[in-house]
Amino acid sequence: MSFPLSYFLFFFSLVLGPIISISSTSWFGAWIGLELNALSFIPLIAMKMNPYYSESALKYFLIQALGSALLIMSSFILISTFEMASIFLFLALLLKLGAAPFHFWFPQVMEGLAWPQAFLLMTLQKLAPMILLSYLITSNLVTKMTIMAAMLTAVIGALGGLNNMHLRKIIAFSSINHMSWMLMALSVGDSFWLFYFLVYTIIVLSATTTFSSLQTFTLSDLVQSERSSVFNSTLISMNFLSLGGLPPLTGFIPKWLTIQIMADLNLFIPLFFLLVSALITLYFYLRIIISFLIVLNPSMSFNIKSKTMSHTSPALLLSLSFNLIGLLTPFYFFIT
């Protein structure tokens, strides 16, 4: 796909916005960075004259405008009542993140995006709000609210992914569920959530690269003959299992470390919610894998020397290597 020159300006300002927000010394400067980031992302959503892209761009604009209005209002009352302003700032950032109870817009916007834009929405667009949220974790009230939001987000992300046929919606609810783990990591550790975010970005890059290369958008697309080679089926399965946090794949590493930290702090009730939600997400991932490997495609050939193997793109091979990083997990236990 060829990009007009103007889109490189949007890419530049898309990255510049979070940098301004993170480095700002005031909430007004953070608001400016978030606005620059959001307004740069909207043209990237509507790159093609497609009604689905335009609808997603409009929904994203309205939600981000609402969140920005709430954020700038909170910054005005920050001087007089810090606790009340912190609550409104917290809610505004949750809205921008797409975390529960303000998750409703995230799957709807994701459903109308191409895979590259979906990757940006699930990763880069969450970075600045998460860092700004970490600045608020200074009072006991905001910490408790973050833990409550993490538990609710975990439940919503797990239950929302059930009985879905569209891959982008499934990945969207998976992103909501992973957001709960990052919120919990944010509330219990100063910078550990950044490690979780980095690993999650690698996993999402692997998944979106695979689905974009195979032009896959629904579960029925997975079982089409030209996409159901041994390599592609294995790669898709590994992407799903890594998103579900199954050991020893890459997605298991940050979840295991988060579990260790929460257990050390005796946060067993939030840990219970997160573990149950992780099992539910792993269940619907396994159901998808079983469906397209066995039930929907029983005649698939498992000849490792198939023609599709010789035409595998380097992007898919790189995607496979991302999921195998988790095989290095035993070395962590040997070192520690």
From TrEMBL:
Reaction(s) this enzyme catalyzes, per UniProt = a ubiquinone + NADH + 5 H(+)(in) = a ubiquinol + NAD(+) + 4 H(+)(out)
Molecular function, one GO term: NADH dehydrogenase (ubiquinone) activity
- Where does the source fall among the domains of life? Eukaryota
Record-level GO BP terms: mitochondrial electron transport, NADH to ubiquinone
Q: Where is the NADH:quinone oxidoreductase/Mrp antiporter transmembrane domain positioned along the sequence?
A: 24-78, 81-281
Q: What Enzyme Commission number(s) does the record list for this chain?
A: 7.1.1.2
The protein here is known as NADH-ubiquinone oxidoreductase chain 2
Q: Which gene encodes it?
A: nad2
Location(s), subcellular: Mitochondrion inner membrane
Major enzyme class? translocase
Q: How does it sit in the membrane?
A: Multi-pass membrane protein
User: Can you supply one Gene Ontology CC term for this chain's record?
Assistant: mitochondrial inner membrane
> Short name of one Pfam family for this protein?
Proton_antipo_M
